[in-house]
Amino acid sequence: MGISVAAIRFKHLKMLQYYQMSKRYDKILKEILKDVVDTLITRVIGLKIVKSTAIETKLQITNEREADFILRVELEDGSISLLHIEFQATNYSKMVYRELRYWVYLTEVHGIQPVQYVFYIGNEPLTMKDSLSTKTTTHKYNLIDMRDVDCEKFLYSDKPEEVIISILCNYQKKGVKIFIREILERLNELVPEETLRGKYIRQVEVLSQLRDLQCEVSKEAEAMALVYDLERDIRFRQGCEQGMTKGIEQGMIKGKQEGLLEGEQRGQLKGLLEGKREGLLAGIELGLELKYGLTGVALMDKVRVLPTIDKLDEFKNLIRKAASAEELKDFLGNTQE
To answer: What's the angle, vertex CA 198, arms to CA 68 and CA 210, rounded to 5?
Structure first.
């Protein structure tokens, strides 16, 4: 039996959604990890750098690619080196070919043979090859499995950006509950300001997804009373207010235009309702991002199809009360059945 056109379209839509989410996830990871690259170089790779300078990461290799990090570094002995660093969350079978392409391009453009490091931050057993050898070509890059790195290299740092990286490391000596509690306690000590601390806890949650530990992180944060009241967050309130104002203005304009056909009063009422809906959606999206990070934002496709303003309002209130994102998913599932 052949595959229907509808099934093919659905499959393509799911692939597109996965690709978009993957790009967003990569962007979030890169944003989190950019503050600890120098620390990884010194504590994990072991290079003693005096100075590092970031280099443009977009590379025109037939089709444009973007590397994670390219750094020109000066070492203690005065030598200059070019470091190319990638973070990889999945076992990509052709990683060695990708690294070879980067190596050729960077050597040609910068006149320095780059030293390449790939940090594997996935949860599945590492299966990628770190070298290539054929009759005509050989290439090797440095492959580091972050699960082999002792978490204490980062856990007791005085920088919160480094503490959160420990969630990717080896914690077997501690046990998962004690380990997560130590991370959160360190962040609590280092970051007294509630909203900023919330940002770092959300980053830990994003990275913990790579270790299937998000549920444990969320529970420990709540047990330690580190989860802040969303509606006290000034950014959330401002986002709701700005979204509501903008939505009402846009709705009024649209409503007035339609009012030429169906009556000015009816058009204005429709504009107000549309404005309120847009404002609620803006506030909800910000609230989901602040409290649940990427997991929360991923729910917006289902939120947008909630049928009434009352349902949107009910969902907005649920964000503040919900103990986990699963409660929100259950609400959305029950509403759309």
So the answer is: 45
Three-state DSSP class for 139?
A: strand
Question: CA 281 to CA 300: how far, in whole Å?
Answer: 8
Task: Give the list of residues 6+ apart from residue 183 with CB closer than 8 angstroms, or none.
Answer: 155, 163, 164, 166, 167, 204
Cα 8-9-15 angle, rounded to 5 deg: 90
Indicate the pTM of the whole model.
Answer: 0.62
Which of the four pLDDT bands, split at 50, 70 and 90, describes residue 32?
confident
Q: Are 319 and 311 in contact (CB under 8 A)?
A: no
CA distance 224 to 187: 12
Q: What are the pLDDT digits (tens) for 264-273?
A: 555 555 666 6
Question: What is the C-alpha to C-alpha distance for residues 321 and 227, in angstroms, rounded to an integer?
Answer: 11
- Where on the phi/psi map is residue 141: left (φ > 0), alpha (ψ -120 to 50), or beta? beta
Round to whole Å and give the CA distance between 217 and 91: 25
Helix 176-190 vs helix 214-223: angle between axes, to the nearest 10 degrees? Answer: 60
- Mean pLDDT on 58-84: 78
Residues 127-171 pLDDT 10s: 999 999 999 999 999 999 999 999 999 999 999 999 999 999 999
